[in-house]
Amino acid sequence: ACLGWFHTAAGWHPVGDAAVRSSISDDPLIAAQQLPGAGWLQVLFTLMCFEWLTAYICTPPKDQPWDVLGVSDLIADEKYPEWKDQKMRELNNGRLAMVGIIGLIAQDAYTGEYFGQIKNICALRMFANDGNPVCEVELFKYGGSYEWPMIYPEAPFSMPV
Description:
The chain is an all-alpha fold. The protein has 5 helices and no strands. It is extended and about 55 Å long.
């Protein structure tokens, strides 16, 4: 969720732009409001398919209902201290990620700041094909300029508006 928030705030949202057939906002909360109802129905349908698969098709064991992928069959000793530590780390990282995305949403809803400064991070600029320079580097003193390759080349057709 945080990764989706950051790449939307950085201005890289080709799927969202294609869904609305124009440019959506860089503010993730406004971009979510600009998504048509059919897009939200697709998200809901996909989540329902995952729920159906894990409830009826690939049912987890009764004694471990959280083990959807069947990883417990690969572990010889569930009481192994390193395995218990790893499970606790994963649980804590998941909780921290949930608190992080809630913090980002609350900040945007309360103040309107959605971390738009991420657009200025030099390493992330190479993923945005908006014509702006990638990094402020003095390439001319090293022998010339460098043209960054297009990650997504322009299509030979245009989208109907």
